[in-house]
Write a structure and sequence with these properties.
Elements lengths: L10 E8 L13 E8 L10 E4 L20 H10 L7 E5 L12 E2 L3 E2 H17 L7 E6 L1 H12 L6 E5 L5 H4 L4 H8 L6 H9 L6 H16 L22 H8 L3 H8 L8 E7 L6 H14 L5 E5 L10 H13 L1
Parallel strand pairs: 3-4, 3-7, 7-8, 8-9, 9-10
Antiparallel strand pairs: 1-2, 2-4, 5-6
Helix pairs in contact: 3-9, 9-10
Length: about 325
């Protein structure tokens, strides 16, 4: 719902992409994908910076261009910020990266698919060709939760491609974010004789999934992302013993290799190439992510990586309003 109908409206265009890099995905997810593209009022996109919205778990990019009750969707937020002069005009791409396991961390996985390659090699180049926007030094990405993870992971892994990133409440400090879920996952598996395939088939057959079910599905998605087993059903294997919940070191080490706090130890200095890096988290985040954010902030300070770090008085839920802070920072840096 638009808060101010007098604000000039940008246009949202829907384009389609037939992906080659996703053809090998183990989940059997569709390779034909939607990308919604926001172009601000009075522009055709030419010469503008490009931002990419990588969304959180259970969502796809086009969810952010849908009508929203009691507030603004992303295009309406952009209309307001641009019309008010708080941020310069930008093109924003909202790609559909939803998967059968409920979401995406935006990295390459032998099970989930080559999602980093999808963004870098296919989705972004298509948007830039179509709208003559972005390009080297003029592209950035932002996201919250799993999308926040995707933003910071890409900033760490591909600082020569991206020039700005905003991580809102991103997954990090995995031992605090994921391991506390494992006892609940094992309890969910018990009625299925610890058979992940049986649990997943039951889930896919349900008419209505509970919040608890969705949370277990998310944990399976993380397993298929960080430590995929192509020989297992949908690539899912657990990092813990199913009877004792003891950590399996080999499995868990594969998880940790993707933890932004761990990756930053060796890759953090590469982010000095970025024009802007923004990180925030709610100070009572119910997934314990604020502690990882604090660790990353401390590490980046030690490495002398320029960044902005903020904590705010809220939890993990319904914090899209934080984009009012991050989007102008990214847009101004890329337009400069």
């Amino acid at each position: 719902m638009r808060r101010d109908h007098a604000t000039p409206s940008g246009q949202v265009h829907r384009i389609w992409i037939d992906s080659d890099v996703l053809k090998s995905n183990l989940l059997g997810d569709p390779t034909r994908r939607i990308i919604d593209v926001y172009v601000p009022h009075g522009h055709d996109g030419r010469g503008l910076p490009l931002l990419v919205d990588v969304v959180g778990f259970t969502a796809g990019g086009p969810a952010h261009s849908n009508w929203k009750n009691f507030g603004e969707n992303l295009p309406e937020r952009l209309d307001r910020l641009i019309a008010s002069g708080e941020m310069p005009p930008v093109v924003v791409a909202l790609p559909d990266c939803f998967t059968k396991l409920g979401g995406n961390q935006y990295i390459n996985s032998a099970a989930m698919g080559r999602w980093a390659d999808f963004l870098l090699q296919e989705a972004v180049p298509l948007v830039e060709r179509t709208y003559a926007c972005g390009g080297s030094g003029k592209r950035g990405l932002f996201g919250k939760s799993s999308g926040g993870y995707g933003a910071i992971a890409h900033a760490l892994l591909y600082p020569d491609f991206w020039s700005a990133a905003a991580c809102h409440s991103g997954d990090m400090a995995f031992e605090l974010a994921y391991l506390p879920d494992m006892p609940g996952v094992l309890r969910a598996l018990k009625p299925f004789n610890n058979d992940i395939k049986a649990w997943l088939n039951d889930f896919f057959g349900k008419k209505k999934a509970s919040d608890k079910d969705i949370h277990v599905l998310m944990d399976f998605a993380m397993c298929a992302t960080y430590d995929p087993d192509p020989s297992a059903f949908m690539g899912v294997r657990l990092p813990v013993d199913v009877e004792t919940c003891a950590i399996i070191p080999e499995r868990w080490n594969n998880f940790l290799a993707w933890d932004p706090v761990v990756m930053a130890e060796t890759r953090g200095t590469g982010m000095k190439k970025l024009k802007a890096l923004y990180i925030d988290c709610g100070d009572v985040d119910q997934y314990n992510l604020v502690y990882g954010a604090r660790r990353l902030n401390r590490l980046l300070k030690r490495l002398d990586v320029p960044h902005i770090y903020e904590e705010f008085s809220d939890d993990h839920s319904s914090v899209d309003y934080r984009m009012d802070v991050s989007l102008p920072i990214l847009a101004k840096a890329l337009a400069g």
